[in-house]
Amino acid sequence: MSDIINKYGWAAQPRDVSVLLEGKKNNKDPKPVDVSSVQLPDTALAKSVLEYARKELSTETFNHSMRVYYYGKAIQTQQFPDWSFTDETYLLVCLLHDIGTTDKNIAATHMSFEFYGGMLALHLLSKELHAPIEQAESVAEAVMRHQDIGATGNITTVGLLIQLATIFDNMGGHEDLVHMDTVKDVTRHYPRNKWSSCFAATIRKENGLKPWAHTTALGEDDFPNGVENNKLMEPYD
Question: Rg of the chain's alpha carbons, rounded to an integer?
Fold first, then answer.
């Protein structure tokens, strides 16, 4: 069981990020990371999901998904080197975390995009690509909970990392965890293409179609406004 927990990023972390960050004994200054220094997993599963994501996601959303992979890896290797998961598993989380936001998938269900996206991820990985069920379930849970921000309880390691990386890319949060030279290089390879306004529009679209959506828990106006006014990433938009 412990091998599965460590391999697929199931280990519990506090959902309250402030507790995690305040509890760090050695808060390291981030160092620059170049895209060329981070090798993407080249497994058959990773390649299949990369191809799927390129096909299903808009260019803007695909680029965001790749950015959060590189930001997340920078955070993990420099700030939390004891966190355990395969790079393949985290890449799958990144590529699939916003699959529920496509026009086709938003219109296909009454469910909030994260939950439906998690179901799509689970089916894709376990039924179509025959990934280990423990890995497929870890990815699905992280997709479902990547906006499950709060101050109580726990979340999986890959679930928390995708939260940290998406908050950084979407709102400029936790800016002390990633060096800005990393941002410059990552956005050069995967341009934002006005991602702030693009994602804010997606949030407002879902909230308009589904006023019960889980995204409203982050603030019906505060969340899209915060995304739209991401000052940290403004120079790269």
Answer: 17
CA 139/CA 150 separation, integer angstroms: 20
Could you tell me the two tokens for 212? 């019960």
* Side-chain-side CA neighbours of residue 107 (13 Å): 3
Whole-prediction pTM value? Answer: 0.96
In this structure, what DSSP letter does residue 220 have?
T
Dump pLDDT digits (tens) for 55-74.
999 999 999 999 999 999 99
- Backbone phi, psi, residue 14, to 5°: -65, 135
DSSP 8-state class, residue 90: H
Reference 196, options 165, 229, 163, 147; nearest CA is 229
Do 223 and 180 meet the contact criterion of CB atoms below 8 Å apart?
no
Q: Which two tokens stand for residue 83?
A: 């966190």
154 strand-pairing partners: 14
